[in-house]
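User
New here, explain this?
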Amino acid sequence: ELSDGQCVGFDGRLLSTAKVREMKESFDKKNIKINKRYDFIDEIWKDRPSVPVDQVYIHDIRFAGKTALEKLNEVRLEMNKMGVNNYLLSSLDDIAWLFNLRGNDIVNNPVFIAYALISMDNALLFIDEIKINLEVKKELERNGVQVRDYNSIKKVLTGLKKGDKILFDPNKVSIDLYDAIAKEAQRINGNNITTKLKSVKNENEIKNLRNCQVKDGVAMVKFLHWLDNSIGADHVTEISGADMLEKYRGEQEHFAGISFDTIAGYKDHAAMMHYKAVPETQYELKSEGMYLIDSGGQYLDGTTDITRTIVLGKLTDEEKRDFTLVLKGHIALASAKFLYGATGSNLDILARQPMWEMGIDYKCGTGHGVGFMLNVHEGPQNFSQTPNTIKLECGMVITNEPGIYREGKYGIRTENTLLVALDEKTEFGQFMKFETISYCPIDIEGIEVDMLNEKEKQWLNNYHRKTYELIACHLNEEEREWLKRETREI
């Protein structure tokens, strides 16, 4: 435990302003000092990899739907409402979205290391200029964006004048950047403007995403068909299964990699929500129990995230009951009709209610926002027991993934992606609904049909019918016949 007069050192580039404020408030009570200028790691990590220098590339307007200039003008409109004339941005997904650029600096996330400073008549992108080719530079210039050296950001912040009001998100901006802001400038704490803007997909993004989800569904169905034919005939493991799914995704148009490390767990491994298989301890799949695979793809026309729990053999009564409870929760949330103004924390209970009635719960959120050819986890919307004030807006994308995890036995999760859409408007207000936009059969062999009411059966039958209609035309004859069986009515 730290004691009076001691000093805590850290690299101020790596901790947010909000976190350091919190630390300081706690440390001041014990007279503990802070040194924010020390990179201990650099002194002891002798073969430390260099910062990535891959080229960034343009995310074409046919996918993005809006130019960088249009997005900048939307940001400036919000800045004007807030009475600020500068906006500091350091979260990589926000920067990539704002400038319609993508990169390869972070595994599975098509972003690049950069800062941005937006004023009413200027937009500065601070980046290692070796990453910017002539085509990208010209595109940025056409949209009123100037490229500056990555390390010059602090000099520009120091140069702000009296009368400047700079907006920043203390949860995203490092204490190092915060300390560089000129003392004469007025600092305004707030949430990132871009986070809310990019969470509401435009019409073009939604059109692209629908197509992307069909492709991803094709890859999933081809994989499930392969798996069904391979268990017992070939040596299939947690890892080789995940590798085969990535192969099928790689065959789809505009594929750019997986959106996160695949979670592929068999039997009791699936009870660990964020399990990652390794060669030394992975299981071989057999004709028994359940195999959970949570995966997703990055495509130029969207980002996907889907989970299926696959029945590989005869299940116990408890396993079938739990599988069905998860499905009931999934359907309840997917088919919700709600008044505009509701948040994800208002609706989270819908997915849990069937389980709660049986004294069961899962200790995580029910869903998260998804980026567009960006981070698979995106805010500010989510489904969670933790209270939040973010209204679910038309055009938001969010996952629906309830589950049951029994330690040492098995894990079950059923996940699709939802699009928030308008429903009817009445004298009582605007009602909203969800549209499920992931297409892949839910394993009927896991369902205790008698536990489903007629409305739930109808939802599942309609979902399977639409899945067949959208996916079948992209399959060969054998795969189509397999899909027809898997989407049969119950």
Observations:
- The chain has a mean pLDDT of 96.
- The first helix runs from residue 17 to 28.
